[in-house]
Amino acid sequence: xxxxxxxxxxxxxxxxxxxxxxxxxxxxxxxxxxxxxxxxxxxxxxxxxxxxxxxxxxxxxxxxxxxxxxxxxxxxxxxxxxxxxxxxxxxxxxxxxxxxxxxxxxxxxxxxxxxxxxxxxxxxxxxxxxxxxxxxxxxxxxxxxxxxxxxxxxxxxxxxxxxxxxxxxxxxxxxxxxxxxxxxxxxxxxxxxxxxxxxxxxxxxxxxxxxxxxxxxxxxxxxxxxxxxxxxxxxxxxxxxxxxxxxxxxxxxxxxxxxxxxxxxxxxxxxxxxxxxxxxxxxxxxxxxxxxxxxxxxxxxxxxxxxxxxxxxxxxxxxxxxxxxxxxxxxxxxxxxxxxxxxxxxxxxxxxxxxxxxxxxxxxxxxxxxxxxxxxxxxxxxxxxxxxxxxxxx
Length: 394
What we know:
Blueprint: H1 3-24, H2 28-42, H3 49-68, H4 72-77, H5 79-103, H6 109-118, H7 124-134, H8 140-163, H9 169-196, H10 203-221, H11 227-236, H12 238-243, H13 245-269, H14 273-278, H15 280-305, H16 310-317, H17 322-333, H18 339-364
């Protein structure tokens, strides 16, 4: 199959995913992964070198955007419940899933660590979408949920970087480059925007892409991953997007129109349906362990800090998508897990994005009004739109 044939099929699948997402109100990321699985089975495309490269960069862009979504003022205000709920949301599933992978599934230590990392996450995309749709984004519960999700995702990024870093001179270079990139972005953001901002040629986006490529280059030399510094870089420049919301909108358009669809579609293209069916018991086992350990860790803490809505909080903290996909891809690309193990982990990640969300919204949602269409018209993409209380009517 030629590159143009593959590109045409990929473009068609991306368009179909967008249409289905709009028509049925389902996260486009989930649909893109699903269509990747269907497309690979029906049409036969598999990830090519250009898909792998764009998908890898898109994963780092997603990580950067996730960091940029964090409201630092909110985090400072609700740091205690966020730290307790978010920390337990990461720690217990990481340990529980890793033990299950090692002692039940028979995976080796490194493979078990990948499994624990991939299934310890909470989906910022899913959590934010639910908060917007139910009108919870502006109240204390919504703010604690967003802050706790940040703590969980930061812990996941940290675990992925620390556990799989290989000590070397290049690792030192990676740390130095990461620190310099973050520092320079923070120092130069104001004068850069003052001189080059609000131009159709988008120097700001090009500068951010250069910074992310530098992080990926240094990480590649160190045989590590740029997920943690990219996340911290997004967090460091989050105030830029607050001051320049139009720039954030344009950045999101560039990313979500082309880059991130290939990232999620690539995940589906790597899934073999036959391997998924053969490992169905293991997939459900991983999913069950993730949700059970989330409940063991999060539910008691949620009862302390958000008691009337503890189960709702726990279910949303049990979701996973973006960082779970990134962690699974890292394991596959690094040769730590094989294709079948990747397929099983991806199945569990997707399941955790769907099942807890449906249960939370159907049976445990707080009795608040859903937002009217005009109240959410400013939300261009439910998956990664930042928390903006001014758009929400309490």
